[in-house]
Each structure stands twice: as C-alpha cells, then as structure tokens.
Automatic annotation (TrEMBL):
InterPro entries given in the database record: Tscrpt_reg_Rrf2, WH-like_DNA-bd_sf, WH_DNA-bd_sf
Origin species: Polaribacter ponticola
Record's protein name: Rrf2 family transcriptional regulator
Highest taxon listed in the record's lineage: Bacteria
SUPFAM superfamilies in the record: Winged helix' DNA-binding domain
Length: 144
C-alpha cells in the first residue's frame, strides 16, 4: 500500500520520535539499523523529511536527527505520507490500474473507496506522540 520509501520513512520518524522523550539525537547508523533499512536509502529519506520540517538534524559529533518533544502531538502520520508518497494512496486504484475511475471502475473500485477513507482518517488522527508512547512499539525497536 505504501511505497518502500514511505514505509522506511514512517519507521524512521516513529523511532526518532521515541528518542524525543529523552532529548536524544540519533545518528543515521542507529536509525537504519533499528528500522532494518539500507543506510544510504535511509539517509535520502531523512534528508527529504528534514527539508519538509518533519524532523530536524544537527551536524557534527554531537549531532543527529531529532524531533522536538513539543511537536510530537502536532505531527500526524498523514504529514509523513504526504511528504514521501503524496496523495496517491488516497486516490489510486486498489489494483494499480491507471484508467480506473467512477465511470470506468475496476472490480474493487467502490469497495476500495471506503478502505481509502478509513486509512486517511487513521493517518490524520494518529500522531507521533501517540506512537512514541506505545509500549509495544518501543519494545519492538529494543528487541531488533
């Protein structure tokens, strides 16, 4: 459903958000290892997220990526998806067909509309604060 870029981006931002509770800045090596993503690919994704002000970064020996804890409740997953994948997840065909629309629907077209609407609501209503506080998610990253 999401592109690989978006999947890794979501994982990275959630991981960085978890570090915000302790005001930790996280290096690219740590992030790519924690989210099981190639380092160069992760770096490109993080650069895009930094450019779009989802996350922040500081260079140097005490630098790294971070999110101000006060912003965690203001950043929804939809913000990250928009930066990395645009709105195609809300408008694209469930089967990936280019000519699917209301006038020429694919077999899943009308059923998929409801799924897209629910997904959009979930992404818009789920903040980084909520996910960074999720104990199961924190345990997942600590185990891997």
């Amino acid at each position: 459903m999401f592109s690989k870029t978006c999947e890794y981006g979501l994982r990275a931002v959630i991981f960085i958000a978890q570090q915000a509770k302790t005001n930790e800045k996280v290096g690219i090596n740590t992030i790519s290892e924690a989210i099981d993503s190639p380092q160069a690919f992760t770096a490109k994704i993080l650069q895009q997220l930094t450019k779009n002000k989802i996350i922040e970064s500081i260079k140097g020996p005490y630098g790294g990526f971070f999110i101000d804890e006060k912003r965690l409740n203001k950043i929804a997953l939809s913000n990250i998806v928009q930066v990395l994948d645009g709105d195609s997840i809300y408008t694209g065909c469930g089967l990936g067909l280019h000519q699917c629309n209301d006038k020429k629907p694919c077999p899943l077209h009308f059923k998929f509309i409801e799924i897209r609407e629910n997904l959009k609501k979930m992404l818009e209503n789920t903040t980084l604060l909520e996910l960074s506080s999720d104990k199961a998610l924190a345990d997942y990253y600590l185990k891997n």
